[in-house]
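Review session, final week

We close the course with one last complete record, chosen because it touches almost every idea we covered. It is Glutaredoxin, a protein from Chitinimonas prasina with 85 residues. Go through it on your own first, then we will talk.
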Amino acid sequence: MTDITMFHTSTCPYCVQAERLLGRKGITALNKVNIEQSPTLRDEMIARSGRRTVPQIFIDGEHIGGFDDLVRLDQGGALDPLLGL
């Protein structure tokens, strides 16, 4: 099973879109980390991704990027192999 972690906030429309895209791919198990819950979680996201915006998505520990990066991977045909599809 593919391990997917998405750092997000509760008001981020791009986070919702990323989750929908993954859902269309059949991904039901998604580890969502709401960075609004703790400054430590935001710091962890920045340390792991080097970015301050949400969403930040990791597949099997590899930083994929944000929503735009996820879409580019999907459009280029590289997302399905990462998801094990």
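Two points worth writing down before the exam:
The first helix runs from residue 13 to 24.
The chain has one domain: 4-83.
Good luck, everyone.
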